[in-house]
Design goal:
globular; mainly alpha; 74% helix
Length: 210
């Protein structure tokens, strides 16, 4: 009935909304407590913002905003208004959770000295957090929106798209980051991409009709 009165609003499932919010919160928790203290870099939009800051002196606040808007716009064009609805909820979950995490001390500060463990732990948080959100049709970040859009266009498995976009950025990042650190980032990208792919193949429960 509500949808008939408001045809322009996306038809969002409440359980999927909760999943989008909580999975993005899980992702934010991992990025703060693992990635931000370990020195392991990222691919995708985040890695590109760091690259542009290094070589073009463009602030990540500016480049990140522009790239994320472009990725979400592409996702909206290809995937529809439900995608934007779930993505808005996911983005809110990520931002709120990350802000709360910033008020706390790091849980595992020793990961800064053990980048291998940081890569493994980080892959679990990124893979599971982003994977669940993407599975229900939302994107917690521009990277995920771009991967979903390219997967839709090319019909490639989404983990292959993640690997391609992340490897391009990580390869460019070799221009200023030591290859040893890039190696740990590649490990994180490989593992998180596989986890996301596994989650994408889990069938969603059928929604009750009517």
């Amino acid at each position: 009935m509500f949808q008939k009165l408001s045809p322009k609003l996306p038809n969002l499932n409440p359980l999927s909304c909760a999943a989008a919010f909580l999975s993005s919160a899980f992702l934010a928790f991992g990025l703060y407590h693992v990635h931000s203290f370990s020195g392991v870099t990222e691919g995708g939009v985040l890695g590109m913002t760091l690259l542009l800051e290094r070589w073009a002196r463009i602030s990540p606040a500016v480049s990140g905003l522009v790239m994320n808007i472009a990725c979400y716009a592409l996702g909206f064009r290809l995937l529809g208004k439900e995608f934007i609805g779930y993505s808005a909820i996911a983005s809110a979950g990520f931002s709120i959770s990350y802000k709360l995490c910033e008020q706390t001390e790091p849980l595992w500060p020793w990961l800064a000295d053990v980048p291998l463990f940081a890569s493994l732990y980080g892959a679990v948080f990124v893979g599971a957090g982003a994977g669940v959100c993407v599975r229900i049709g939302g994107a917690p970040g521009g990277d995920d929106a771009l991967a979903m859009s390219l997967s839709h266009l090319t019909k490639w498995k989404i983990e292959r798209v993640y690997l391609l976009t992340d490897f391009i950025v990580l390869g460019l990042s070799l221009s200023y980051i030591p290859i040893r650190k890039i190696g740990y980032s590649v490990l994180t990208v490989l593992l998180s991409g596989q986890i996301i792919g596994w989650i994408q193949r889990i069938p969603l429960p059928k929604q009750p009709s009517g």
